[in-house]
Design goal:
Order of helices and strands: EHHHHHEHHEHEEHEHEEHHEHEH
Largest sheet: 4 strands, parallel
Mean pLDDT: 95
Distance between the termini: 15 Å
Shape: globular
Radius of gyration: 19 Å
Low-confidence stretches: none
Length: 320
């Protein structure tokens, strides 16, 4: 059975994430220590016992979620499960940096600094209050894109996240997104709600942030990943470092094509998906996209041990 490792994006953060693992595993603890050193502050303290509102700030949530995911990766490695057992890696938005770090394409310290900058740049791209995002449930992506186009009226309103067959997120100018929410309801959406986010991510309003990331990524070494990454904006595999660098820039203002990425992996033989890091949101999206998928969320020391044991059992079964 082909396996993929997938990594969560913003919104999965919770105070306390990764603490159990760091206390149980030196390799996991070392991840948080290296990220703290790279950022020059104790981000680990904020993630483990800090203020939830402060952790939710984009510039904190992004590196903290990556650190938590990488702590899981290192703990799995300590149990004998290397990233190369997976056929592919993929991550939702910032999770793409986690995936690349797990696959050895980007160094941990570089990933932490890039995500801190990415968070700041995305927040600074649009004045607070001028942008917005909304989730639309019960309409397919084409229908939501049509609603967004009608709602724009000279502003920006675009599909930002294509999460699963019936869950899409729109992003853009506040007034346009508010109009889209009402139009989506009229079009038959089961639910259309504004999201409590601080900026309109993954739309053309993020172009200034993309330019910032292009400059920053130009100064960072990117190696060929040990495992192909299924990129957000392509919904297909990428392995060439120069292509990956370009895709990470495109991703800032581009659509997160998660549903299409899951479908691509399924078409290429993946049946099992391990969600490494905080939360279980991706597992739900995957099951709604690919009904035959087996999903496993791995975040705690117990879950790491169970995942490693399941892998050893699978290896024994295949060798018999």
């Amino acid at each position: 059975m082909s396996l993929a490792f997938v990594f969560p994006g913003q919104g999965a953060q919770t105070v306390g994430m990764g603490r159990d693992l760091a206390e149980a595993c030196q390799a996991a603890r070392a991840v948080f220590e290296e990220v703290d050193e790279a950022l020059g502050e104790r981000l680990s303290a904020l993630a483990w016992e800090g203020d939830a509102e402060l952790l939710t700030l984009t510039e904190n949530a992004q590196p903290a979620l990556m650190a938590t995911s990488m702590a899981v990766v290192r703990a799995l490695e300590a149990e004998g499960v290397d990233v190369t057992v997976a056929g592919y890696v993929a991550g939702h938005s910032l999770g793409e940096y986690s995936a690349l770090c797990a696959a050895g394409a980007i160094k941990l310290a570089d990933a932490a600094r890039l995500l801190r900058l990415r968070g700041k740049a995305m927040q600074a791209a649009v004045p607070v209050g001028e942008g917005a995002m909304a989730a639309v449930l019960g309409l397919d992506c084409d229908a939501v894109a049509e609603v967004a186009e009608r709602a724009a009226q000279g502003g920006v309103c675009q599909v930002a996240n294509e999460n699963d067959p019936a869950q899409n997120v729109i992003s853009g100018s506040r007034e346009a997104v508010e109009r889209a929410v009402e139009l989506a309801k009229e079009a038959g959406a089961k639910r259309a709600v504004m999201l409590p986010v601080s900026a309109p991510f993954h739309c053309s309003l993020m172009t200034p942030a993309a330019a910032t990331m292009a400059r920053a990524l130009g100064d960072v070494e990117i190696a060929q990943p040990k495992v192909p990454i299924v990129a957000n904006v392509l919904a297909a595999e990428a392995t060439d470092p120069s292509v990956i660098r370009s895709l990470l820039v495109d991703q800032v203002a581009g659509r997160v094509r998660w549903r299409a990425s899951v479908e691509w992996m399924a078409e290429h033989g993946v049946k099992e998906f391990w969600e490494l890091g905080a939360g279980k949101a991706l597992s739900g999206m995957i099951r709604r996209t690919f009904r035959d998928a087996n999903t496993r969320a791995v975040a705690t020391a117990r879950e790491v041990a169970e995942a490693a044991a399941s892998r050893q059992d699978a290896c024994k079964t295949s060798s018999n």
